[in-house]
Amino acid sequence: MSFRKRNIGLSTGGDRAAPVSAAAQPQQLASAASAPESTPGVRPSPDDGRPTTSTGTPSLDNILAGHGGLPIGKTLLVEENGTTDFAGALLRYYAAEGVVQDHRVHVVGMPEQWGRSLPGLIGPADAVDDKQDKRKGERMKIAWRYERLGEFGAGIAGSRVPTATPGEQAQPTAEGSPDKRPAFCHAFDLTKRLTHPSIANLNYIPLAPSNEPLLTTVHKKLDAAITSSPSSTVHRIVIPSLLNPTIYPPESCQPDSVLPFLHSLRALLNRPGVRATAMITIPLSLFPRASGLVRWMELISDGVIELCPFPHSADALATSGAATSHEEPPQGMLKTHRLPVLHERGGGSDQKVGQDWAFTLSRRRFEIKPFSLPPAEGDKEGQDGAASGAMPKKADLEF
Amino acid sequence: MAPTNTSHRQTHNLLLISKLLSLRDTASPLALVLDSLEQPATPLIKEYIRRAKLSKVHITFVAFETLQPLEGVDAFVAARKKSPLEIVRAVNAAHTNVSTSGPVRRRLILIDAINPLLHARRTDAHFNISSFLSSFLMPQSPTASKVEASLVVTFHQDVPSPPPPSPYTPSPLSMLTYLATTIVRLHSFSHILAQKAARDRSLVPPVFGLEEEQDGVLLGRLDKPVGNDSAQGVVLELEHRRKSGRGVLEWYILPPASHYPRQYAKEIVTLLDDHPLYRPPQEPSFGAGEEEPESTFELRLTDRQRRDREGVVLPYFDAQQGDGPGEGGRILYDMGEEDDFDEEEDEI
Amino acid sequence: MPTQPPLPPLLAPYVTALPTSSLTVLSTVLGAQGNWLTLRYLYAALNASTASDATFSLSGDNNNNDGKKQKVVLVSFLRGWEFWRSEAKRLGLDLARLTDKRQFAFIDGLSELFSSPRTTPTTETAHPPLPSQPALRGGPIPQRTVLPTRSAPGPIPARGPQPTTPRPVAAVPPPSAPPAPREVGGPVTRLHWSSKGAAALDSLEKDIAAVVAQLKAAATAEDASEVLLLLDQPDLLLAATGPSKDVGATEMSEWVMGLQQYVDATVMTLAADLPLIHNASAAGHQMATPLETEHAAFAIGSAHRAHMVMQLRDLDTGAARDVSGVLRVSKGGAWGQSDNVDTNGGREEREVLYFVQRDGGVSVFGRGE
């Protein structure tokens, strides 16, 4: 029952955005209509109309407190336990999305090889979704009311970009043919390499020693790069593995070095006229969440999510963890400690707060979905029941 | 405990606290008040001021964290941004113009919190808490008349101390407790009651506030339910070192200030053990302890019956006579006529 | 429009009529931020008409500021003008207009605290807009047209240095105010961390004191000159500078005390997350970092100095859909220091739940209600 409620919230959130922006923000709609190509990859939030941009991961966009993306001017801190690099995959999607959308992407502390390893573009996130085709072919199996809920992975992101799905085509779109609308989020293939004309525009900010504190230099370079570019540019700041001692010198993990840097970064993103977002990852194995320093980094960030990968030995759990044979086993848990805008305002009203999330990284996507322990092995009846009744979402996804 | 013993302890210890709080005979030159967020020292400090006013003692208040002078204070020294030496000078100056004009009065110096000074960066490595405190008690110049001064220092126990400059130096708290002649630990009465109630049921005593170690909780104190205001008050755990070296440890309770008039001269502090809520008077006394519940049955034994009962030799006594190993556990039973012995079933 | 009253009745006694020279500590955690409560203090002070018709009656003899409007100075170290402006708008407060009317002043501790402005390095004259910017930005591009601005036009980016467009504030100076040079760059004062330790703190104090003095000077006869100071997360200063820059808990406390002397009441937001408070406690199993020790000393020490401590935290049982968090109101260490205990009626300790709605309205209710 709870699942259904949430799903309705999701899809109506997407539908509602158009009338809201039309009624309450005429100037914004006008500007969006007049120059839609000037802001590719930016769209108003269905929640309150603030501009958001995609993280490159549709299911991550969908858990960001109903905004369907990362609001402009916000930072997202991605923490990861253990030695895996799922957070790095999220960063690559984020950077690749920026490249594809012609955003200016600033990469801190990484060599140019990092940019060459960005995942290859498949297409707009929904159009190339292989499940989309499957769904079209086997539509008869799905109860009508479930189909309206939309696919979970698409959620708001999907409903905003018109696709060939009949339920959404029925909804009249304001501007022209759906194909002319730029996609908000794209799908990427981790095994391929991104080739895009604007990939050369990646701005690498090296961690070169100078007579200044290192992070001060980084901030100055970021500041200069952002202020010197036209104000219509949308920026993405990518900071992989902040404070990792193999990249950063040991003195940068002093609070009086890293916290002013994050504070200045926050100030930069909040500056009027600057349109930028930032995604930062940090290894929790080296800097545990229980330490005061990390807590302050979280307090300065707008959004905090934590990745807890399952140990490899959990394969047994994982194989049985898939509710159906089609579903890939989850590779870890994802916790949202703080969501942009929502918690700043007091928190709580988001329908998905407190939900347990699991993530799965496959070749083509990083998928986040609600985590639930599966019915016991061999409990055929329970599995059937879960698939048909209690979990419309899974049914929606998998038939 | 014998009743005479209790009443002796009562009068003796009440005299002691009265002497200490009223600063009579300079019984304790340095009193250390250890408070916490759960029970701040404000009520006790106000009680000190009230009594000092009654006995016309000159009060100097050294404020490290207070902005507004408390009522009844004669001299208010703001210690903000001052070095220890400046503070000592200011405190002494506050008294000199008084002592030159009028008759020599005893003085009370209150320090509202010593923690900021211990934390401050401006206190260099040569800062010594003991010389700092004793400089208040010493006469500032040889010519000045000796003034009997008492020092009451508050220390917040729950404020973490910075790491000591050297790993071998004692912590400030142990230094202060070593120097102090009187140590008063403050507890909230309602917490003491709650912990006692739990202990009486052999439960783990509850903890409050910071000790809860809960995210976002600094204070745990909540007002008692309306109408139960008798649980207000401050519990003082007093540790006093006499000049003879003997130590006294006693628990007292200071009732809230609204319960007595300001000019009330009699002792208002009582022993915690005498408080009706802590030790309810209907608690069974020594003799009544063996009383059994009344019943329609006669459950008691007469003396003769009891003697008979004690005379009974129970079987296991016999067994313990011990005729060697293996003999002890036998069941001695003589088969009677009414016993229907079944060979197959009961193999004894 | 908020369906809830801007000031929930249960909350009203705590956010109005703060005692003179009192400190109120508002402790928050990562998942339960206190901005909504800060806004309630703001609202109660600036919009006193609603505060006075509340059901409780405070026989204030020395602090009869209920029913009288207060001026507010908001110093924010983690959030910018845009956030406070838009959130206050949901409560019906037009901060830009109130700034013009000299009832409110915003001091920006975010924008340039650690990143020194590129043109004017001194702290006092740092308020004119940055002249290098228009050239760098490439001329008068209509910068914000594509951003959705939810409010009516006005001084929208009131802290935005946009010298190409004439600022309404600068164009129409309020007649009552002396033409201070500070006003050239807009109504917002920005703080700068200059160099080290005590000197830097002193200069911050001077900047804030100047703003407070301006507000007080602008007071007219019918207008109260009482000023409420809202300090939003000054503990960031401590965390981001720390003992290596000669800033410790004592220095921070003294800094706050210094600010308290300029104003009538102070509300301060602090982080009270578990790692920041308890790692330094004696029960800690490991060596606490200086950051943790100093933060805990500052936060707990401030609670000792506080009149009331409003503690926000997450729900103990995990997140819920209709509850944002728990608010525990406790008497601080300085409770009862001044002798007007009677005027504190209505402010008893309690623990309530709160829920921040999507529209910004807040409902406050007891458990089980």
TrEMBL record, chain A:
Alphabetical UniProt keywords: Cytoplasm, Nucleus, tRNA processing
Signal peptide range: none
UniProt KW Transferase keyword: no
UniProt feature, compositional bias: Polar residues: 51-60
GO CC term, one of those recorded: elongator holoenzyme complex
Subcellular location, record wording: Cytoplasm; Nucleus
GO biological process: tRNA wobble uridine modification
Keyword Secreted assigned: no
InterPro entries in alphabetical order: Elongator_complex_protein_4, P-loop_NTPase
Region (Disordered) location: 1-65, 157-181, 370-399
UniProt family annotation: Belongs to the ELP4 family.
Protein name per UniProt: Elongator complex protein 4
Organism: Aspergillus saccharolyticus JOP 1030-1
From TrEMBL, chain B:
Region feature (Disordered): 279-348
Intracellular or extracellular location(s): Cytoplasm; Nucleus
Protein's pathway: tRNA modification; 5-methoxycarbonylmethyl-2-thiouridine-tRNA biosynthesis
Cited InterPro entries: Elp5, P-loop_NTPase
Pfam family, one: Elong_Iki1
Coarse class of the protein's main subcellular location: cytoplasm
One GO CC annotation: elongator holoenzyme complex
GO biological process: tRNA wobble uridine modification
UniProtKB keywords: Cytoplasm, Nucleus, tRNA processing
Biased composition (Basic and acidic residues): 300-311
Composition skew (Acidic residues), residue ranges: 335-348
Molecular functions (GO terms): tRNA binding
PANTHER family given in the database record: ELONGATOR COMPLEX PROTEIN 5 (PTHR15641)
Similarity-based family: Belongs to the ELP5 family.
Protein's recorded name: Elongator complex protein 5
UniProtKB/TrEMBL annotation, chain C:
InterPro entries noted in UniProt: ELP6 (IPR018627), P-loop_NTPase (IPR027417)
Biased composition (Polar residues): 115-125
GO biological process: tRNA wobble uridine modification
Listed pathway(s): tRNA modification; 5-methoxycarbonylmethyl-2-thiouridine-tRNA biosynthesis
Biased composition (Pro residues): 154-181
Highest taxon listed in the record's lineage: Eukaryota
GO cellular component: elongator holoenzyme complex
Region (Disordered): 115-186
Family named by the database record: Belongs to the ELP6 family.
Protein name per Swiss-Prot or TrEMBL: Elongator complex protein 6
Source organism: Aspergillus saccharolyticus JOP 1030-1
